[in-house]
Write a structure and sequence with these properties.
The protein is of the alpha+beta class and about 260 residues long. About 30% of the residues lie in helices and about 25% in strands. The radius of gyration is 22 Å and the shape is globular. It starts with a helix and ends with a helix.
Length: about 260
C-alpha cells in the first residue's frame, strides 16, 4: 500500500508539473518580443576573417544590402551585431547624460547595446516613438549618434523628449546625440522586465561579424540560395554561417 500511495503521489506531481509547463509555454508564446518579423531569415557573415579591414567590411555589407534588398521576395533587409532573444549581450558604460558626473567610487550605469545598419527597425518591424533612423548622414566624418529605446529615454530624461539629447560613455568621452527613440522590446529573455537599450550606427563603429536579417514575402528558406549567390558574387571567400529562420531563432527563447 505504501508503494501504491507513493506512485500516486509521484504521478500527481508529474501531472501538476506538466500542466504548469504547458501553461508557461503557452504564456511565453503570447508574449510580445518587441519586434514583428515572424517569417524572417537570418544569416551571419564575417568578412574580417579573410582579412577585410573596417572600411572594406562596411563596403561589403553596404553592397550586399543593396543587392539582397532588390531580390524578388525580399521586403526589407539589414544587419545587426546582436539579435534580440539570443544567448549573448553586450553592455557599455558608464553611461552619463549631458551635465551628469560620476559619483566618486561609483561604477555608473552600464546599458546593453548593439550595432545596426540603416533599415534594421523597418526589417524587424520595431516602431519608432520619435526621431529618425540611421541613414547616409551618419558616417565616420559626422558627429556620433545613437538611437535609444523608450525605457532608456524615460530613465535618463523623464517627461522630456530624448531626441537631441546627448550621452557620454565615460567621463571625458566624445558626446553621442540621440536621433531616435524606438519601442522597448525583449533583449535576453521573453519574461524579462523592461530594460534600457541603445543602438550604434554601423557606419560609425567597427562592423565585425554581423547577422543579416531579412523580412521576406515568401518562404524564408527559398531565399537562402539567392542570398548565398549574392555573397559569392561579391567575394566567394566570405564565410556564411548561422543560417536559420526567425521561428527557429525564437525557439531558444521559448524554451
Amino acid at each position: 500500500p505504501i508503494l501504491v500511495v507513493a506512485q500516486v503521489a509521484l504521478s500527481l506531481v508529474v501531472l501538476v508539473c506538466g500542466g504548469l509547463f504547458i501553461k508557461s509555454f503557452r504564456t511565453a508564446q503570447t508574449m510580445d518580443p518587441g519586434f514583428n518579423n515572424p517569417n524572417g531569415l537570418i544569416l551571419s557573415l564575417s568578412p574580417q576573417l579573410i582579412g577585410y579591414d573596417d572600411e572594406q567590411s562596411r563596403n561589403f555589407y553596404r553592397q550586399l544590402h543593396e543587392r539582397v534588398s532588390h531580390l524578388p521576395g525580399v521586403e526589407a533587409a539589414s544587419f545587426t551585431r546582436l539579435l534580440p532573444l539570443s544567448d549573448s549581450s553586450n553592455s557599455n558604460g558608464p553611461i552619463l547624460k549631458e551635465g551628469e558626473t560620476l559619483p566618486p567610487g561609483s561604477a555608473g550605469r552600464n546599458i546593453m547595446t548593439t550595432v545596426i545598419a540603416p533599415g534594421y527597425f523597418n526589417t524587424m518591424q520595431i516602431p519608432f516613438v520619435e526621431g529618425r533612423d540611421f541613414d547616409d548622414r551618419d558616417h565616420l566624418n559626422t558627429p556620433r549618434v545613437v538611437i535609444v529605446n523608450q525605457r532608456m529615454a524615460q530613465m535618463l530624461w523623464p517627461g522630456e523628449s530624448a531626441v537631441g539629447k546627448r550621452i557620454f560613455i565615460g567621463e571625458g568621452s566624445n558626446p553621442r546625440e540621440v536621433i531616435g527613440v524606438v519601442k522597448t522590446g525583449k533583449y535576453r529573455a521573453l519574461a524579462e522586465d523592461p530594460k534600457p537599450y541603445f543602438y550604434y550606427a554601423m557606419a560609425q563603429r567597427r562592423p565585425g561579424t554581423m547577422a543579416m536579417v531579412v523580412r521576406p514575402s515568401v518562404d524564408p528558406r527559398s531565399l537562402v540560395g539567392a542570398i548565398r549567390s549574392e555573397v559569392q558574387s561579391l567575394d566567394r571567400r566570405v564565410p556564411i554561417f548561422g543560417v536559420k529562420t526567425m521561428e527557429e531563432h525564437k525557439t531558444f527563447a521559448l524554451w
